[in-house]
Input
Amino acid sequence: MPSSTTERGAGPGTEVVERLTAEWAEPPTLRGWFSTVDHKRIGRRYLVTAAVFFGFAGFSALAMRTQLAGPEAEILSPGEYNQLFSMHGTAMIFLFSTPMLFGFGNFLVPLMVGARDMAFPRLNAFGYWVFLFAGLFMWASVPAGAAPNGGWFAYVPLTDERHTPGLHLDVYTLGLLFLGISTSAGAINFIVTSLKLRAPGMSLNRVPVFVWAIVATSFMVIFALPVLNLDNALLFLDRRFDTRFFDTDRGGNVLLWQHLFWIFGHPDVYIIVMPALGIVSAVLPVFCRRGIVAYPLIVLSVVAIAIISFGVWVHHMFATGLPQLSYGFFSAASTIITIPSGLQIFAWLATMLLGRIVVRVPFLFVVGFIVTFVIGGFTGVMFALTAFDQQTTDSYFVVAHFHYVLFGGAVFPILAAIYYWLPKISGRMYSERLGRYAFWLIFVGMNLTFFPMHVSGLLGMPRRVYTYPGGLGWDPWNLLATVGAYVLGLGLLLVAVGVVHALRRGAPAPDDPWGGDSLEWATSSPPKPYNFPVLPRVHSLHPVWDPRTAESTGPGATEDRILTDGRQTLFTSELDGRYERAVRMPEETLKPLVAAIGLLTVFVGLLFAWYWVAAAGGALFAGTLAGWLWPAHRTPEEAGVPA
Amino acid sequence: MASTDAVVRSRRFVAGSAGGGLLLLLSGCAGGGPSTLDPAGFGARRVEGFWWLLFWISVVVFVEVMALLVWALVFRRRPDRRVNRSEPTRFVVVAGAGLPIVVLLTVYGIGLRDLAALSTPEVPPAVTVEVTGHKWWWEVRYAGVDGATANEIQIPVGEPVLVRLRTVDVLHSFWVPQLMPKTDLIAGKVRETWLHAERPGEYRGQCAEYCGLQHAHMAFLVVARPRAEFDAWLARLGAPARTPDSDAERRGQQAFLGSACVACHTVRGTAATGTVGPDLSTVGARWSLGAGAVSNDGGHLGGWIANSQTVKPGNAMPPQPVDAAALPDLIAYLQSLR
Output
């Protein structure tokens, strides 16, 4: 049900557009590049940076698979292997998955809710710079030979100062604390944007599922991340200042680390997967030519997962000897959490069964997602069952399981999103043929890599081993997995080629190439700095399929939704999306960058124990923050004081 | 009976899910590895049965989901299809929540039953093995016996054996896939599990919790044998080490006792009483060197003594400045300790 572009063109006059452009355009200078607060530019940067980190982590995986192609190989030393697998996991979780999905959120949430930017544009810029610096901070440790080597889970006492001296784990604890600032800032921004900046008329029951997923994820981040931050702070203190939180000889407790880590760690699985499921709910219905089936159930599922996910962490600790009763409880919770995912799967299937399917590359990746995520779901139920978990945890079976969940459940949707929104982000169409080749290579490669790991795990192969003896039945499965990894790598390379090809040679993209239903398709490709010349009024769940939306931005549009006086967007009420008032948005500024540099200095200083450098960085950060928050000088009238 | 079942099922498993991998699996099975699908003990058998139930449930549901997916892709793709705008909420609730709840409750119940079954043996164990995890080897002692061995646990077949687990350093996990699921070794705690081998044999085990540089080389062997043989073996373990028979072995013993070896290793009945490294009183009879790093033969033993860092980088034993001429004697002596 594609909307008509001609109606949309008949919107505000050229004078309005000129004024908006003058207000919102950022100077195309070097300074402008560093000082931008435009959510679209920041979103693009998140996507590109996260993709580069994905490349690093992917090459780490290829190196590991090469080492494991056959038994007793000596391509990597044990020390190198252990650093690579630790960085692979840490980077894929923290530096790729969440930032990539936050990148899509950054670009899309303001567009989908019909706003002109994120609620806190400067905080948004700050979040990006912190993410970039934290990522570089962690990756720089790899060429220095000081990369984290305690696994992404960094269990004590292996990771304490006595068993792992050197900077390895300090890079880990400080890097994640640093990065956590970015993630928390992003989460707060998403919540406020989605609750306050929605277009008039977009009541909660008209919010796209993707936005719901981002908001639920953000709430999870806000509750889960402080626990990880605490854990890392305690470990840093133990290592650097000999506190004893995790030292059993002196009254500490090693399981405390695991509890805190997984109280964060299991919600984090959903922090990664949920926005990806949101992508599926955005992409799939459009290629089925109808609205998603059972929207309320899907939203309820999203919220349910966000809550239940905080009650399942002990299933990561089923072999640590906690009481049976506790196993019984957490086993039940871990079993129950699959139900909301099951509901979503069947809602998607029903949407497909009732629609008219048009197969394009984004849809292919959605289908790939369904096939692989379902398999990951089965093994997920198995891990909820304590006895089975105790047999297969820490074997290659679990490696197979979570790659089906995370590659199947997050990377496939991310790839679908890349192809689906590339026309909107770049204004260029990708090559369908290249995209299909990439899909098939990735789908075959992914299954060839990870399916055999189920078998090697059942055959008794433990994970996190840098080599293994031949003749135990593991060899052929490992060889298959390695071959698969190269096929997969080739497919992902082809995605990169496809994107570059689109940017260089792609045909200009129409505003709405797919006939999409959400508001990002109601504006130009790529969107102008002000997103919408007229902020639309929303009347239904599928605004672009609803002619009233186009009418609301047509000739009759009122000044209170055009807002040409300075940078402005709209506040609406949290639940019903009622028009409240126009709010002013900030200009571009270098302060977020300077603040992030201050923080980087703090963390580098802490890493090398140059505490005066850390103090100087702290002063720079605090000073910048003071300048940032200093109230602008305004007359009483401007401040809204009644005369 | 059960093992042939397992073979039949694993063939089906391959045919069903991995297609062309059949040849590869058969070649893999020839090695007789530590497969959870080839259980030889009570705990592992219990979980294996559970696995096949879960596997077949998964296959059925997968086929159902794929059938719907393929149906949609084939029949809802024709351009002449009219979009159906109904809201089949009931279908979604029944298929996505109703049926799964029934299945999940069932497997949850079975899982609880298996968890209870695994927690304590049906009869109280008569033998207690004290296993201590070190970076990166397993120290093995028996309650009431004054000897120790390493990376090898002998047990009597056909009865439960209590295993008490401690770690002196980081976390490890005790896993014998064919006998029993994992038990983590937690710093500051004593953990317990039990093994019940149903048939004589050798069952490979391996540390399953990442424990640092040589986590890959922290394997051990559980040897299940008839009670009489086990008793004889245990008596041997508690007795002083064999005395040298030949001149070469005697010269080797002299070299051993005169070297730094004694600071870390024990050979019962001699002046060597170190406790940092494994007890060597029966080293000649063990299945491997370095907890599965290399096989236990003269060549590897010589290489290990001269510089074990090339064999298992990072292990606690420094290179030994042994005179090249004395090395063959030393090897002969150590190999005689059986």
Notes: The domain at 247-336 of chain B is CATH 2.60.40.420 (Immunoglobulin-like). Chain B touches chain A through 98 residues (CB under 8 Å). The longest strand of chain B covers residues 127-134. The radius of gyration of chain B is 26 Å.
